[in-house]
């Protein structure tokens, strides 16, 4: 009877929802279970006394399963709650330690009708809640992860693209610079030709005006008096001179380009900025290098055009600067023997500068510094010295300009490599590492930080001179000794004489850098003559990757294979023909990308 | 021209001094000033060496290997420039040992700090003596030229 009414009532209230409750109630009505499961003492709860027995024998009978956990879960679904007994209230469950007591406000032993009120808790929100709890975080994680991966990929692509573009940019820069150099070289050839033509022209005019107001007693006068207006050179010559002048002005761009190249390589090279890195505004740098370029141009111009058309005023100036007595006609052999005879010992070597090179010697050890200075002095250089890297950087930052910096590596206050790194922020002066640490990884590091060359310590006089001539080729006198030069010029102009001597085999690598066209074949790696080759090699690089690049530096160094960032660093002037950043460049790019990737991964 | 210029044109190089290196220095002397340039450099070097050795002794006491390496490097440079090869070699060893490296002895394994310090301690008297020997030779040379 009870059952049927129960059935009827549940039928109205939703049979499925209360089926479980009904079963539960029925189960509790069976007195044979009382030792295992029964109503609580107050009739408002029920107690599972023996968990194991309940699970094994009773659950299967009434609920068709033998899983206590799912039974509890079911109870929870119907909003039953496990009754917890706090220790304060009587020290554990009154039904024994292993008992489970469950309670629902409408589940009472004496109130069967209230069972209808026990409803399954709304399943949907519950379910979605668990969904949220379990799935949402992982979903979010997945989403974020995939986004991250995508971003990484994008970054990597960008990175690759960037390195590729930078590389191309670098190549183009190199190429352009090579072309610039070629142009300059051509310019010099042209200037030489011009000088020659000028003298021929002058002679011709002179010859045609014998007895004129400018009859020559001696050649110096003659050369200086050519400019006057009545004696203008033939108009084709003047035109050519003008053109040359225009060409010369392009060298300013060339400096900019070099600067750009440096900037470019700096961004590519992975460097660790030394502590306290000071960056001067680049505007200052470029302006100073511009000034430098201008100065250089003037000095390089043997035959500048302009208002005073004629012999270069700078030229007569350096005639005065020639530091030894004008050689007489018969001492046309080696300038150094001439020198030795006219001076004292053969220690003074004049490499034949068009002006004394400004050298900054950075060295903390006074012995080395004094001897280095002495050597430089004997090479007719102007020397400034700094006791450590910091002083050197300060000098540069204060605006001192040099043609070359000789830099010790290990120094107090600021080491040479850091100093070089700092100087490179603002200045492109060639920097030569002077050090006894010449292991290949050391050298790689020097180059990576912008050093141009390495002079192993203890250096010899010859080693130092070779280094100077290698990096100061642009300050070498341009031999005037074109064979066709009129006799008057050679007898009259003592300066040209000695210059000619400089080109003799006596002084190593003095041999004319620019004068003769065959120089352009790039035979001498130390001189600028090789530049025309540069573009070709750069082009090669564009076309293929696996060019076997053997880096070899002139100094007694071992080949450096895994060097990064050296290619762009160095001035073109000392890059060997097969050395135009091949594998190293690749390696660097790879390394850069790799480093970037690692960074991403770390994020 | 060379023979009548100086009583002794070169020191007795022996094992202590590298001839070509030192000759480079001598070449730098101005003829009319005796050997002022080179003698100044040489004598200053020996002062510097004495001071450096004192620094090394102190660093050994305090077991400052890094300092020892620095001092070794420092003296190596100047001694090499003057061609004082024995001093140079010893200084190079000190420099390396200061970094606990024994590569100069073809020993790739790094030294313990203790061994490095011991090696330096042992070589110090030798290098001082080598330096003193070189100094005697060079002083004799310059005194003879005074």
TrEMBL record, chain A:
BP GO annotations: regulation of transcription by RNA polymerase II
CC per GO annotation: nucleus
Domain Response regulatory residues, every copy: 358-472
Region (Disordered): 482-517, 562-584
Subcellular location: Nucleus
Polar residues composition bias: residue spans: 506-517
Pfam families per record: HSF_DNA-bind, Response_reg
Sites bearing 4-aspartylphosphate, chain numbering: 408
GO molecular function, one term: phosphorelay response regulator activity
Keywords assigned by UniProt, alphabetized: Coiled coil, DNA-binding, Nucleus, Phosphoprotein, Transcription, Transcription regulation, Two-component regulatory system
InterPro entries xref list: CheY-like_superfamily, HSF_DNA-bd, Sig_transdc_resp-reg_receiver, Sig_transdc_resp-reg_Skn7, WH-like_DNA-bd_sf, WH_DNA-bd_sf
Known function: Transcription factor that is part of a SLN1-YPD1-SKN7 two-component regulatory system, which controls gene expression in response to changes in the osmolarity of the extracellular environment. Under low osmotic conditions, phosphorylated and activated by the phosphorelay intermediate protein YPD1. Also activated in response to oxidative stress, independent on the two-component regulatory system. Regulates heat shock genes in response to oxidative stress and genes involved in cell wall integrity in response to osmotic changes.
Family: Belongs to the SKN7 family.
PANTHER family documented for this protein: HYBRID SIGNAL TRANSDUCTION HISTIDINE KINASE J
Subunit note: Homotrimer.
Protein name per Swiss-Prot or TrEMBL: Transcription factor
Organism of origin: Gomphillus americanus
Automatic annotation (TrEMBL), chain B:
Highest rank taxon of the organism: Eukaryota
Gene Ontology CC annotations of this record: cytoplasm; nucleus
Alphabetical GO biological process terms: phosphorelay signal transduction system
GO molecular function: histidine phosphotransfer kinase activity; protein histidine kinase binding
Phosphohistidine found at: 73
Annotated PROSITE patterns: HPT
InterPro entries reported for this sequence: AHP1-5/YPD1 (IPR045871), HPT_dom_sf (IPR036641), Sig_transdc_His_kin_Hpt_dom (IPR008207)
All copies of domain HPt, residue ranges: 34-141
Protein name: HPt domain-containing protein
Organism: Gomphillus americanus
Taxonomy of the source species: Eukaryota, Fungi, Dikarya, Ascomycota, Pezizomycotina
């Amino acid at each position: 009877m009870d059952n049927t009414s129960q059935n009827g009532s549940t039928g109205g209230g939703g049979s499925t929802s209360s089926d479980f409750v009904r079963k539960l109630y029925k189960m509790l009505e069976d007195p044979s279970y009382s030792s295992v499961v029964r109503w609580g003492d107050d009739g408002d709860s029920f107690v599972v006394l023996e968990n194991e027995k309940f699970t094994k024998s009773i659950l299967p009978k009434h609920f068709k399963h033998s899983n206590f956990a799912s039974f509890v879960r079911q109870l929870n679904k119907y909003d039953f709650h496990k009754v917890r007994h706090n220790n304060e209230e009587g020290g554990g469950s009154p039904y024994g330690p292993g008992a489970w007591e469950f309670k629902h406000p409408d589940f009472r032993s004496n109130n069967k009708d209230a069972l209808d009120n026990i409803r399954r808790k709304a399943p949907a929100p519950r379910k979605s809640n668990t969904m949220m709890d379990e799935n949402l975080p992982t979903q979010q994680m997945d989403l974020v992860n995939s986004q991250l991966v995508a971003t990484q990929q994008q970054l990597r692509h960008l990175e690759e693209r960037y390195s590729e573009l930078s590389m191309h940019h670098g190549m183009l820069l190199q190429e352009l610079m090579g072309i610039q150099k070629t142009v300059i070289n051509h310019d010099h050839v042209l200037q030489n030709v011009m000088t020659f033509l000028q003298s021929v022209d002058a002679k011709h005019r002179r010859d045609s005006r014998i007895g004129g107001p400018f009859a020559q007693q001696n050649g110096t006068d003659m050369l200086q008096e050519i400019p006057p207006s009545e004696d203008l050179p033939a108009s084709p010559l003047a035109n050519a001179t003008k053109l040359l002048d225009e060409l010369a002005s392009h060298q300013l761009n060339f400096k900019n380009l070099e600067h750009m190249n440096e900037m470019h390589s700096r961004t590519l090279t992975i460097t660790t900025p030394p502590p306290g890195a000071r960056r001067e505004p680049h505007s200052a740098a470029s302006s100073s290098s511009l000034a430098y370029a201008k100065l250089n141009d003037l000095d390089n111009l043997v035959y500048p055009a302009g208002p005073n058309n004629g012999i270069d005023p700078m030229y007569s100036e350096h005639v005065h600067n020639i530091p030894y007595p004008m050689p007489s006609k018969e001492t046309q052999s080696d300038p150094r023997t001439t020198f030795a005879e006219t001076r004292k010992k053969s220690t003074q070597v004049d490499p034949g500068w068009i002006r004394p090179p400004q050298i900054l010697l950075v060295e903390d050890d006074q012995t080395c510094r004094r001897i280095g200075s002495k050597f430089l002095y004997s090479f007719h250089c102007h020397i400034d010295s700094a006791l450590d890297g910091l002083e050197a950087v300060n000098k540069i930052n204060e605006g001192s300009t040099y043609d070359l910096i000789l830099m010790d590596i290990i120094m107090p206050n600021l080491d040479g490599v850091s100093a070089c790194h700092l100087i490179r922020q603002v200045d492109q002066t060639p920097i030569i590492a002077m050090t006894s640490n010449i292991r290949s990884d050391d050298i790689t590091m020097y180059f990576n930080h912008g050093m141009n060359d390495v002079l192993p310590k203890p250096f010899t006089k010859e080693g130092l001179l070779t280094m100077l001539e290698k990096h100061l080729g642009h300050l070498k006198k341009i031999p005037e000794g074109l064979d066709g030069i009129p006799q008057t010029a050679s007898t009259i102009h003592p300066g040209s004489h000695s210059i000619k001597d400089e080109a003799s085999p006596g002084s190593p690598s003095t041999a004319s850098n620019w004068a003769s066209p065959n120089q352009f074949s790039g035979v001498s790696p130390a001189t600028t003559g090789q530049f025309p080759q540069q573009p070709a090699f750069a082009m090669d690089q564009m076309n293929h990757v696996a060019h076997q690049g053997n880096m070899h530096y002139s100094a007694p160094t071992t080949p450096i294979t895994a060097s990064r960032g050296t290619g762009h660093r160095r001035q073109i002037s000392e890059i060997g023909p097969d050395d135009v950043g091949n594998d190293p460049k690749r390696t660097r790019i790879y390394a850069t990308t790799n480093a970037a990737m690692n960074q991403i991964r770390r994020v | 021209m060379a023979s009548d210029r100086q009583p002794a044109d070169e020191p007795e190089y022996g094992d202590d001094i590298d001839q070509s290196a030192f000759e480079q220095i001598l070449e730098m002397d101005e003829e009319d000033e005796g050997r002022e340039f080179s003698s100044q450099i040489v004598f200053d070097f020996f002062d510097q060496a004495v001071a450096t050795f004192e620094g090394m002794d102190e660093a050994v006491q305090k077991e400052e290997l890094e300092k020892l390496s620095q001092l070794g490097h420092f003296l190596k440079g100047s001694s090499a420039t003057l061609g004082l090869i024995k001093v140079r070699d010893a200084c190079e060893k000190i420099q390396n040992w200061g970094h606990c490296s024994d590569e100069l002895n073809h020993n790739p394994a790094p030294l313990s700090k203790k061994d490095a310090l011991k090696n330096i301690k042992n070589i110090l008297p030798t290098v001082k003596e080598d330096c003193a020997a070189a100094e005697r030779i060079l002083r004799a040379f310059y005194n003879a030229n005074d």
